[in-house]
Amino acid sequence: MPLLDHPYRVAKRLVYMADGFTLLAILAAVTLAWHASSQAVFGTPFEFLRQSVGPWSEAGITVVSLLMVVCSLGLGQDRHPLGWPLRLFRLGLVGIALGNAAGMPALAAVALALALLGFRSCVRSIGARSRAFREAGPERQRLFEMALASLMLAGGLFLEAWRRGADGWPWAPGVSTVLLTISSGFLVVGFLYFRRNVRWISESLCGPSPRLRTLLWAEDDALLRGWGKP
Fold this sequence. Notes:
Distance between the termini: 22 Å
Order of helices and strands: HHHHHHHHH
Number of domains: 1
Shape: elongated
């Protein structure tokens, strides 16, 4: 396979993307909990905390998505571009920011699914350069399942908005609560798992191959720690 133009930079950007996805899932879960507790009555300190956390979490989703678009610029390759997967990934991130800013969370959830599908192809293309990644299997990342969970989240958000209308489905509140709880929990746990695997890919890109590592002496630890750095 063709070599990466900047392996150390690409490895760091992959970690940033995984951290960004994890933060997005946490912010989305906080926002859903904030909306769910909007009808409850708390004491003065907790009420102030709820009123401050909710808007900040919604704004954080837009900010994190735009920052991920900027960080994704480091994933590009000059000689062998990643092509449409990287463009789909960026388009999904922009859709998350726009949908969230426009007050359409269901659209943001659909955009998250698109971003995950694009990023899945990027990870497979980059990670395939590692023999350990190929032997473990690219499906280990579970990004396709995460995209399905994002669509489940979009369905729950759609039902949540629909139930407020006069002609809403009578069972919409219960179904939407189940969908939102399961999908948000799965996204948080799944992204934490994905974050650990991306760090494994990053280390394999920034370090020598396992066979070369066995040939290096113990006193070459400084070389191993600086492998791939500019």
